[in-house]
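Thread amino acids onto this structure.
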């Protein structure tokens, strides 16, 4: 859902987008490409990573490391990877909990950066619904995107892209990639708020 939402918006804006999956003939990816025009293609995770200038990790958090290993370190080297994923465990039903090995003293964002040290990992937009990710105006007023990562220039490029393409204007920079511990830990709260609001159409705002 996240991948098709983000990919569709980027195609609509004129970007070339390759959707990656485990196999070249993934049925959902094939169906997604059908009505998107010449700017949309699909292939394996490795194909997509090799093709990309900027990579969006839209995989399920528990499978992200495996998917990125399939994408290949060489294909990720030197590139910006925007990590949208959350390490949620759905094995016991709803609401999900955080995967213990990817929380508290570490985070998915940190583990991705450790595994791929030559990739510029930027954690962003993982604290909101995917529809809001690509349309900041989906919630009225001024609200925030949390951003963190080790590479300052990569963060600035991500902010500029999110502003130009998705309409985001208010960013809270949480520093290095360890800030992902905080944003990923917001998910249990986000899920509770989703249940209370009966809608995913909300976001966070830091008021000082």
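Threaded sequence (208 positions):
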């Amino acid at each position: 859902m996240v991948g098709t939402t983000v990919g569709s918006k980027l195609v609509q804006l004129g970007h070339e987008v390759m959707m990656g999956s485990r196999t070249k003939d993934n049925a959902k990816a094939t169906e997604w490409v059908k009505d998107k025009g010449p700017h949309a293609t699909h292939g394996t995770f490795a194909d997509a990573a090799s093709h990309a200038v900027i990579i969006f990790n839209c995989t399920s958090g528990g499978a992200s490391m495996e998917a990125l290993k399939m994408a290949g370190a060489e294909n990720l080297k030197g590139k910006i990877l925007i990590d949208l994923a959350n390490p949620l465990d759905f094995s016991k039903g709803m609401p999900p909990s955080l995967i213990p090995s990817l929380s508290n003293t570490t985070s998915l964002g940190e583990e991705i950066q450790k595994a791929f040290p030559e990739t510029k990992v930027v954690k962003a937009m993982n604290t909101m619904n995917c529809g809001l990710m690509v349309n900041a105006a989906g919630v009225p007023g001024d609200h925030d995107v949390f951003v963190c990562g080790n590479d300052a220039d990569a963060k600035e490029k991500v902010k500029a892209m999110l502003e130009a393409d998705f309409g985001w204007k208010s960013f809270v920079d949480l520093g290095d990639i360890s800030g992902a511990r905080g944003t990923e830990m917001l998910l249990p709260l986000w899920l509770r708020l989703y249940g209370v609001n009966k809608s995913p159409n909300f976001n966070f705002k830091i008021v000082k």
